[in-house]
Amino acid sequence: MEIVLSLVIGVLTAAGVWLVLRPRTFQVLVGLSLLSYAVNLFIFSVGSLAIDREPIIQAGLQPNLVDYSDPLPQSLVLTAIVIGFATTALFLVVLLALRGLSGSDHVDGAGDRP
Amino acid sequence: MNAWTSEWSMAHLVVAPVLVPLAAAGVLAAIGAQHRRVKAAIGLLSCVLMLATAVALLLWVDGQDRPGAFGVYLPGNWPAPFGIVLVADRLSAMMLVLVAATGLASLLYSLARWHRAGVHFQVLLQLQLMGLNGAFLTADLFNLFVFFEVLLAASYGLLLHGGGEARVRSGLHYIAINLVASLLFLIGVSLLYGVTGTLNMADIAAKLPAVPASDRGLLHAGAALLAIAFLAKAAIWPMNFWLPAAYRAASTPVAGLFAILTKVGVYAILRLWTLCFPATAGGSALFGSEALVWGGLATLAFGTVGMLASHNLARVVAFSIIGSSGTVVAAAGFDHPALTAGALFYLASATLAAAAMFLLVELMDRARGVDPDRPSALITDDRLPSFAEAEPPPIDANLDDLAMPLVGRAIPGAVIFLSLSFLVGTLVLAGLPPLSGFVAKVAMLSAVLAMPAHTGPAGAGALLFTLQVVLGLLAVVALSRVGLRVFWSPEERPPPRLRVAESVPVAALLGLCVALVLAGEPALRYMSATAAALHDPQHYIATVQAARPVASPGGVR
After folding, report:
1. N or C: which end of chain A has fewer CB within 10 A?
2. Are the Cβ atoms of A46 and B149 closer than 8 angstroms?
3. What is the rounded (10 degree) CA torsion for B346, B348, B353, B356?
4. What is the ipTM of this complex?
5. What distance in Å separates the CA atoms of residue B163 and residue B132, rounded to the nearest whole number?
6. Chain A residue closest to B157 (CA)?
């Protein structure tokens, strides 16, 4: 599980960084989204990776990380998803506005040069 | 009111700087755009309340006359490491006052006409102030992230206020940079959480010395990523290429407010670095101090050279903001309380002066004959939106001989006012006597001279001294060049028309700079106490950890 998750985070991050460095605004947007997915998965992994463990305390179980999964990263991920989604949507709006104003989807608003 | 109830109510006042603008923004969002006067009145009321609260907190914190943190508030009524904590200490209180002052000034300025250029200006302004106040008050890392996002999301909207291609293009760059910085912020926070198992800043600082050596690499990587996010927001070289374009493109009152925005990054560095990596932190003592010092010095040099290379006043001021960030970050990196005290004084005076200068930019453009109200200017210059016809004059307005409304009545001596304001701003930004920039500079230079030889990286102290002296001269050259072009050029021009709402905030901000000199001794004493508390984080940690929830909900302790 750790290997799979690390691979996914690594591939998402690499693809995201590549796309953010591209000159087209839509590619930058997709790159930012991929990066935020990678970061969200990364936040998940800092608690403890576990399957079938409770995040909420139950009677009769010792309160330690052997019996429970850490609930805090999950709440952090939830907040980060909401905030990341909202700011990415805002970026999309500005992207469309720039495209409408400059008639080009280059990040500098410049047209294609031969 | 006896001392006990006053203590109790002051503790609850800590949450007011977040709640007041939030409530104001909620009310403002519900009011239609046609009720501009009501919206302006609510916005002004909220800003005045915020300023009063901030000053009250500052006086209260200063009056306690103890080192360390004060005014701990538990919004969820959970004990410290588990729940959310707001802390108002000397540094936070000072930043709150700066936020309220610049916020009130730019709101007042916008009332002359800029608040009509878009629909949700007032709401965004209040949310921006709420994010700033929250970021300065919060005592845990994830809420710092949340408040950062609140203030950034509002700043995206404010930067685009007024429209036009230049704003949208620089806004796109600004948003992209800040989104990437936010992602780095999250990675840093989660690494720190993974290593220490807590998000509370004081708790992290308390647990750092106990981190096993095998985890220290991970801890340092997390701290470094976090620092990159903060330094990008503080516009430290080489992560500051977005700033001059964005601040030049922003509408005038927004640029004035943005003068405090880079200081959030500077504040976060000051707060977290002094808290987590003091000289007593064992294996992590002074981690990254060289990066702060050299990065700050490079930024200072870059900012001043940028000032010299710019011909436009807005760009000159934007580069001076970069330079002031660099100064404070470099000074913090030395881990020397006296130097930090001077840097804090510099931070306060440079922020106020830069905000005033940004507001002055538009007025000086008008003095040069670039009258933004004239339709021809709207066609040739897309910086200004077409709201000249936006609002018909009120029916009961006084009309002059040409049946034009008397809203832009020239105030007497407008040119004298402009040149005097420009002179004061220049003196403060360049650090010349007799104004507050000079006091700050003398405090920093004498601290460098009195510093023990081994403080900071080798040669950095001498370099800081030299740069401060030489670059101050270059800043004078850059600013006076702009001033000469505006005020001493021999063309015949009609006197510019200034509105009272535009002149008062400029005068007030510069008046605060003058007041910082007149009250220089108590102000410097306050800054010294702040710096001493910052560099001795045990008091902060102890006070936060000692905070206990209120026993019964609704009960008075």
Report:
1. C
2. no
3. 170
4. 0.91
5. 24
6. A90
How far, in Å, CA of B468 to CA of A38, rounded?
A: 43
Determine whether the interchain pair B171/A94 forms a contact, defined as Cβ–Cβ distance below 8 Å. Answer: yes
Distance (Å, whole) CA A46 – CA A36: 16
Chain-chain contact of B187 with A76 (C-beta, under 8 angstroms): no
Residue B45 domain-assigned? no
Residue B140 backbone phi and psi in degrees, to 5 = -140, 150
Lowest average pLDDT, out of B161-165, B306-310, B403-407, goes to: B403-407
Question: Does the residue B428 lie in any domain?
Answer: yes
Beta carbons of A87 and B182 less than 8 Å apart: yes
Q: Do B547 and B85 touch, CB atoms closer than 8 A?
A: yes
The 8-class DSSP code of residue A53 comes to -
User: What is the distance, to the nearest Å, from the Cα of residue B402 to the centroid of all Cα atoms in its chain?
Assistant: 43
Smallest CA-to-CA distance from B377 within B164, B182, B226 is with B164
Question: What residues does B377 pair with on adjacent strands?
Answer: none
Separation of alpha carbons B18 and B509, rounded Å: 23
* B242 interfaces chain A, CB cutoff of 8 Å: no
Closest chain A CA to residue B156: A90
C-alpha to C-alpha distance for B278 and B284, rounded to whole angstroms: 8
Domain containing residue B309: 288-370+404-518
Domain range summary for chain A, segments of one domain joined by +: 2-48+69-102
Residue in the structure block whose two tokens are 């964005």: B246
Is it the case that residue B550 has pLDDT exceeding 70?
Answer: yes
Domain count, chain B: 1
Tens of pLDDT, residue by residue over A72-95, are 888 889 999 999 889 889 999 988
- Asked if B291 and B335 touch (Cβ cutoff 8 Å), the reply is no
| Fold exhibited by the domain A2-48+69-102 | Helix Hairpins (1.10.287)
